[in-house]
Design a protein that fits this description.
Layout (H helix, E strand, L loop, with lengths): L5 H14 L2 H9 L5 E2 H8 L3 H13 L3 E6 L2 E6 L3 H16 L4 H7 L2 H18 L1
Antiparallel strand pairs: 1-3, 2-3
């Protein structure tokens, strides 16, 4: 990180604080491939519509989501796809930290990597028999 003035550091901290809530990360993950309504997100996260709406409002305020009205429903979609680059960077870093534990590594690995790891484990086990 370059030498930032205190005001910029405060803004960066607020951005990361927005991402520090697990429900918000679940919402971002659910919106990765398609827009969803507040009701759909509430159903998929198991939280109330009011609770999800509060999280969506904050994510939109921070510029991560955009809102679109369709009829009587509000749909949200990703406004800043760079958020996934950040999430992938963090998940990759956490995955490397847990390389000694296969279950933890698989939880943070992209699907294709987890499949290869599983295949390698099966091949190794099969060769040992």
């Amino acid at each position: 990180m370059k030498n930032l003035p205190p005001e910029a550091i405060t803004q960066v901290a607020a951005y990361f604080q927005t991402l520090a809530e697990p429900t918000r990360l679940r919402i971002l993950n659910l919106l990765r491939h398609q827009p969803r309504s507040v009701g759909e997100l509430a159903h998929e996260t198991g939280h109330s519509v009011a609770n999800v709406s509060r999280h969506l409002a904050l994510l939109a305020q921070r510029g991560l989501l955009a809102r679109e009205t369709r009829g009587t429903s509000a749909y949200y979609h990703i406004a800043d796809p760079a958020i996934y680059e950040l999430c992938n960077l963090v998940c990759g870093n956490l995955g490397r930290r847990f390389e000694n534990t296969e279950a933890q590594r698989a939880a943070f690995a992209p699907p294709h990597r987890a499949t290869r790891a599983t295949r390698a484990t099966r091949t190794t086990r099969g060769a040992a028999r």
